[in-house]
Design brief:
Pfam families: TIR_2. The chain is an alpha/beta fold. It is built from 8 helices and 5 strands; from the N terminus they run E-H-E-H-H-E-H-H-E-H-H-E-H. The mean pLDDT is 86.
Length: 144
């Protein structure tokens, strides 16, 4: 079975939650051959150009999951680039708000990309709802 990759973007502050999400996605979508790529586990430590590696992994993914938290809003430049890559490569994007509400995003005058505001945002507690969407996406990619 061909492997399908899902890219998980998160703030380093949220690494624990991202690791749990990565495990859950891979476990629940194992039958579809899905792997979930996340920086902490999967980035090669010898990689010299991390930005290029992140860009390549977004490009190779069938979907991206963005775990957006207050830590992202305080210093999320890397995550914003990953969001821009996903948009540029037309990779299906799922946004999960972690310890953050949509109204808080809208209330910020600076630091939140318009692409995020214009996107469908879901509470992180509802992460299971996107599993079915990813499953359908994988089946559509591998079984036209």
């Amino acid at each position: 079975m061909a492997r399908a990759q899902v890219f998980i973007s998160y703030s380093g502050h949220d690494a624990f939650e991202a690791n749990l999400l990565q495990y859950a996605i891979e476990t629940m979508l194992a039958a579809e051959g899905v792997t979930a790529w996340a920086y902490q586990r999967d980035q090669a430590r010898s990689e010299k150009d991390i930005a290029a590696a992140l860009k390549q992994n977004v490009r190779e993914s069938i979907a991206t999951i963005f775990l957006v938290s207050p830590a992202t809003l305080e210093g999320g430049a890397a995550q914003w680039m990953e969001l821009a890559y996903a948009d540029a490569f037309e990779v299906k994007t799922f946004i999960l708000l972690h310890h953050l509400e949509y109204r808080e995003l809208r209330a910020r005058e600076h630091g939140v990309p318009p692409l995020l505001i214009a996107s469908q945002c879901n509470a992180a507690l509802e992460w299971k709802n996107i599993v079915g969407d990813i499953r359908s996406l994988v089946r559509g990619v591998h079984h036209p």
